[in-house]
Design brief:
heterodimer, A: about 300 residues, mainly alpha, globular, B: about 290 residues, about 75% helix
Chain lengths: ~300, ~290
């Protein structure tokens, strides 16, 4: 196990390097540039701008410069938000996205696994159909519709919760965005849980556990839940990395200053360093979470060996 | 004794996994109803637009942004440009169903093959294959789409393939996770002991046992790709006006939710109904394909 973890740690570095290289060159090959605008800049000024950001150098030299910067923890300056460095933007946005996304994932995990298990135990009954139909609304109604509906209902008509903003970090402001973020995840987690739980409940060892008279609660919590969670855990790795780096739609609708908007804005503005910065950040999270997932496999199912 | 001989002489007809699964699927009422609704929907979006006296890009100047109305023939009302919503919803259904099926199929095939091979091979092969998946996860999706567009021009089929080519990553990881657990089970060891070739083990023993989880995940992928398409359209990278899709219609409708709610409600109901059908068919298929449940 420890040997495997060490191997993964060593393997992570070339993975990260290739990730950065592909992203770097892909972003540069795409047409358009950071200083394109409706009004054409005078050529002298454009040349000076390109020079100031080292964009006039050959591509491989820029790549080397970028990597050297990364080693020192410097992600470079943002082209669009000229007063800020990319590190500053990421560090300002990430805590917000992490808090919203982390809470949403936690909520989704509890509700999703619970709903999936209940549905599996009452397979093909009215309870099953109802629970699954409700959980499906999370992905049947897209979040850009669901979020305004939640605001309309809970903020405008009922007036229970604030409509948007962070409100200095008060918990009431977090409720609606967290729910809006969690709903699609609940659909995924509950459906994956239901499917694999049904499969596990048909196993011989579950029959044995029931035959020796164990109470249903123990059969589920001690024996069935661990292998049943395997596909959920597979899904959870990348999903967690994605949700804690923010969602453009949710951030825009609730007016939350998170990380998600940079993925889209950066790409549309050709803000090379900003896009690359968030991609590298996201990539590190992907590597870390997929490593954790593989460790959890071995904990959940002793048959899994590497 | 004679009876036994007779019994031995009778050809025992082996039922394949698929025949068996098909029979069990037909017994699941929710799945059959859902399949029927979905088939009706498919026929409607294919032939419907020909039966309606309006074109999807025709502006009816006398009826701009009217609610559903029998007298003028605009059964679902019209949008702010006076275009008939019913015909646009049906047209959008063509695109959305097509993107849902094509992209999901692409991600399904790649995901299963990739995940099962990585999981079964294990060791270094698994390590390298999964690091490639990690790399692809972090690839900036929007630049990938922009680049495809530059290389091949604006092409709807291409966008479907691109969406599928991104979506197989989750599928591959889920399949690989299940395979890691499956491959140490007794029946796989038995197959190995019998000298079954690796390819045959993956195809005949691993993959059929994965189908339950895969089918469930497919029912989750279809809505996802339909919405990704609408996101791309929103950014101007997907289908272009006056063409439309359910995702795009719902997106436009959401902007005018309070002034013209019908613009949101009708496409959203079509989208949600379709997704519910896929959901119940998926659950029926999962039950039908479960090798432990016969």
């Amino acid at each position: 196990m420890l040997k495997y973890a060490l191997k993964r740690f060593i393997g992570a570095w070339p993975t990260l390097l290739i990730m950065i290289a592909i992203a770097f060159f892909m972003i540069r090959v795409a047409p358009g540039g950071p200083f394109d605008s409706e009004r054409k800049l005078p050529p002298e000024i454009e040349a000076r701008m390109l020079e100031a950001y080292h964009l006039d150098e050959p591509l491989y030299q820029q790549f080397g410069r970028y990597l050297a910067g990364l080693l020192k923890g410097d992600f470079g300056p943002s082209f669009q938000y000229k007063e800020y460095s990319v590190s500053e933007l990421v560090m300002a946005g990430f805590p917000v996205s992490l808090r919203l996304g982390g809470l949403a994932m936690l909520l989704a995990l509890v509700v999703g696994v619970g709903a999936g298990t209940v549905a599996a135990l009452r397979q093909n009954t009215r309870t099953d159909y109802t629970v699954m139909a409700v959980s499906m609304t999370g992905i049947s109604i897209p979040n850009f519709v669901m979020a305004p509906l939640l605001i309309l209902l809970f903020a405008v008509y009922l007036g229970w919760l604030p409509a948007g903003g962070l409100g200095g970090g008060s918990p009431a402001n977090l409720v609606l965005p967290v729910i809006a973020l969690a709903l699609p995840q609940i659909a995924y987690i509950s459906r994956l849980t239901r499917g694999s739980m049904i499969e596990v409940l048909h196993s011989n060892y579950i029959r044995t556990a029931r035959a020796k008279g164990l109470p249903e609660r123990v059969v589920i919590l001690r024996h069935a839940i661990k292998p049943a969670l395997l596909p959920v855990v597979s899904y959870l790795g990348p999903a967690t990395a994605a949700i804690i780096t923010g969602s453009v739609v949710i951030e825009q609708i609730f007016g939350v200053p998170g990380l998600g908007r940079y993925f889209v804005q950066g790409a549309l503005n050709r803000d090379y360093t900003l896009v690359l910065g968030v991609v590298v950040f996201y990539g590190v999270l992907i590597i870390v979470f997929n490593f954790l997932v593989d460790m959890i496999y071995a904990l959940l199912d002793p048959r899994v060996k590497y | 004794m004679a009876a036994l001989d007779a019994a031995q002489g009778m050809p025992v007809e082996g039922r394949s996994l698929w025949v068996d699964a098909w029979r069990r699927l037909l017994r699941n009422r929710a799945a059959v109803v859902a399949a029927f609704v979905l088939a009706t929907m498919t026929v409607a979006v294919i032939i419907g637009p020909w039966l309606i006296p309006f074109d999807y890009d025709f502006t009816d100047w006398g009826h701009i942004a009217i609610p559903p109305d029998l007298a003028s023939g605009h059964l679902f009302g019209t949008d702010s440009l006076g275009r008939d919503l019913l015909v646009r919803t049906l047209h959008g259904g063509r695109i959305s169903l097509l993107v849902g099926l094509v992209a999901t199929l692409v991600s399904l095939v790649i995901g299963i093959a990739y995940g099962a091979i990585a999981g079964y091979a294990g060791g270094r092969v698994d390590h390298v294959m999964m690091r490639i998946v990690d790399i692809l996860y972090a690839m900036p999706f929007m630049f990938f789409v922009i680049l495809l567009m530059v290389l091949f021009g604006r092409n709807i089929v291409l966008i479907f393939v691109a969406i599928g080519a991104i979506n197989w990553l989750d599928m591959a990881r889920i399949v690989r996770g299940q395979t890691l657990s499956l491959k140490h089970k007794e029946f796989i060891e038995a197959a190995e002991a019998l000298g079954t070739s690796t390819f045959a083990i993956i195809r005949r023993h691993i993959v059929p046992n994965l189908l339950g989880v895969v089918v469930v995940y497919v029912t989750l992928t279809i809505p996802q790709v339909i919405l990704v398409e609408s996101f791309l359209s929103f950014l101007g990278l997907g289908v272009q006006e006056p063409m439309t899709s359910w995702g795009a219609l719902v997106n436009d409708g959401a902007q005018e939710m309070e002034s013209s709610p019908w613009l949101l409600i009708f496409p959203a109901v079509f989208l949600a109904a379709t997704l519910f059908c896929f959901n119940f068919i998926g659950d029926g298929l999962r039950d039908a394909l479960d090798p432990k449940d016969r």
